[in-house]
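Holo prediction. Input below; ligand is NAP.
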Amino acid sequence: MITGGGSGIGKAIAKRFTDAGATVVIVGRNKEKLESAAAEISSPRLECMQWDISDLSLCESNFKRAAELIGGLNGFVNAAALGSAVVTGRGYEPWDITEEEWDTLTDVNFKAAFFMMRNEVDFMRARGIRGNILNIASNAACMDITGSYGAAKQAVIKWTRAFGKRFGSDGIIINGIAPGATFTPMIADYAHAIDQPYERHAIGRFIRPDEIAELALYLMSNYGEIICGHTVVADGGDRAATL
Ligand SMILES: NC(=O)c1ccc[n+]([C@@H]2O[C@H](COP(=O)([O-])OP(=O)(O)OC[C@H]3O[C@@H](n4cnc5c(N)ncnc54)[C@H](OP(=O)(O)O)[C@@H]3O)[C@@H](O)[C@H]2O)c1
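Structure of the complex:
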């Protein structure tokens, strides 16, 4: 199950995984976005599920429904999130966000990030399923920005480590990726073309979603087991981020 699979990084992961032979269900709020991603990926091994993951009461029923749809569920990619600019049209400074926007962002980026992972672990443990969880964090967790986005992503990294160490012995391998600026709709306010120079990254360019997808495939493969509870920073040497 790939939340946020209707666009950007989640969509690229859905494509890479179906290309590799996996059967995938992509989740998002917007049905048209999901259908358009499905048409683009065009795989018989891809299903769509419309679900606003801030409604956490649907976890158990939707996990079961997904398992029925695709014949089992042994992996979760938690890619759904809201960027500050997408919600507020502004940035990450303390005065850029209202209390209402804070709630909208944190419901998805913080609260759902925790409970989705907790419920995914529950789902697999209850059924004795050995599998993987991959959390898409952000290198914003390593930057001196305020607002809720970076703080939520830092929490995701912490939970990835804590859950990873706790449940690795059950055969549930939990890892994360912290991407730098990746050319997706989330950063459309400043990334206008894939070949636009981007000096903040040492590599001088934006990261492509398919590059993150390749790393996701490794981490979710049997090889990824040796990396357990860790979030891999994939930010092209972002000069604004420090670990
Ligand atoms: N792009 C970057 O530079 C960058 C850098 C670091 C980390 N990230 C992280 O990478 C992940 C993917 O982001 P992206 O860059 O690919 O941006 P994106 O294209 O905006 O993807 C985010 C996806 O999340 C879904 N989503 C948002 N809220 C949801 C909700 N409540 N329930 C279900 N789905 C929801 C959206 O679909 P709907 O609108 O249909 O719900 C959308 O498909 C995010 O976790 C983001 O924080 C991105």
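Strands lie at 2-3, 24-28, 46-50, 75-78, 131-136, 172-179, 231-234. That is the main takeaway for now.
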